[in-house]
Amino acid sequence: MELLFAVLGGIICGAIAHVILPWHSTRGQLLGPAIGGITAAVLWEALTWAGWQYDATWIWVVALVGAGVVALVVEWLLGRNRTAKDTAFYEQVKARGA
């Protein structure tokens, strides 16, 4: 049951990451929540296999903060990369058309 709550928290962290970062139009709306949920699930399972208790505070902190950080980093990198590639493509098209 706790895994379900951890994944839901990761989805919320990923959704917040999508909202607070620029380049909304260069990414899908579900990318951040999906990355956050997957990261939270993987972290939660890895920490439980490592022997961390479900009712301990640190497992929640690591899983949710980790999910938020991973979602922020991935969305930041994808947004910057997409914008740079779009600009390069438009410059290439402009140079061919002139």
Characterize the structure shown:
The protein has 98 residues and is mostly helical. The chain has one domain (2-97). The protein has 3 helices and no strands. The longest helix has 41 residues, at 57-97. It is elongated, with a radius of gyration of 18 Å. 28% of the residues are buried. The mean pLDDT is 93.
Question: What keywords describe this structure?
Answer:
single chain, 3 helices, 81% helix, mainly alpha, 98 residues
> What is the overall shape?
elongated
Please report which band the strand proportion falls in: under 5%, 5-15%, 15-25%, 25-35%, 35-45% or over 45%: under 5%
DSSP strand count: 0
Number of helical stretches of at least 4 residues: 3
Mean pLDDT: 93
Largest sheet: none
Low-confidence stretches: none
As for the number of domains, it is 1
Query: What would you call the structural class?
Result: mainly alpha
**Could you state the order of secondary-structure elements as H and E?**
HHH
- The helix content is over 70%
In short:
The chain has about 100 residues and is mostly helical. The protein is built from three helices and no strands. It has helices spanning about 1-20, 30-50, 55-95.
Secondary-structure map:
Layout: H1 2-20, H2 31-49, H3 57-97
